[in-house]
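User: I'm putting together notes for a lab meeting next week and I want to include a structural view of one of the chains we've been expressing. I don't have a solved structure, so I'd like a prediction I can at least talk through. The sequence is below, exactly as it appears in our construct file.
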Amino acid sequence: AKTARQDAPLAALRALGLKSTRSQLTALGAAALVLTSADLWTTYWRDTAWQRLSGRVEDRLRSEVLAQVLRQDMGFFDEHGTGQLISYLTGDVATVAGLVEQADPMIFAVLNVVAGSVMLTRATPRLAALAGASALLMPVTARLLRARSWDAFMHRGEASGGLSQRLESTLSGIVEVTSF
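Assistant: Thanks for the context. Below is the predicted structure for the 180-residue chain, given as structure tokens.
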């Protein structure tokens, strides 16, 4: 015995004049195709817009950093190696641009969580309460794993620092060789 709630989607399709199963499936397939196409189209344009914004931020920041570096006196260049300056111009600026580009998925994820929570609460309040309780336990797990995460980030930072140092040494050696 189906409940009225389970029959509601079929009743809505019958109200549109779609009596046969075949016509209902065709209508649902067409609706899914239209919605999927709209989602793909908006995702493409949203990603393109964020990438353009990220590129503009990166170009502007790189230009500003270069202008500031060029304003320095000669003592600054004696203290800071070529690799370190190149690192500022490429790595750090690219990191900032990457953060700007990551804003879109974060905003989209927050909106999905909020919309999903509202829909879940409206559909099945008990399941929403269970999901909310498990979400409250996530910070406890993160707190317990904080030391392992910190160690992993420290190891990554040391490896990145060693690579920057080797790059600086290599590039400064190239400058010395070309100065002969």
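A couple of points you could mention at the meeting. The CA atoms of residues 82 and 175 lie 9 Å apart. The two ends are 92 Å apart (CA to CA).

User: Perfect, that's what I needed.
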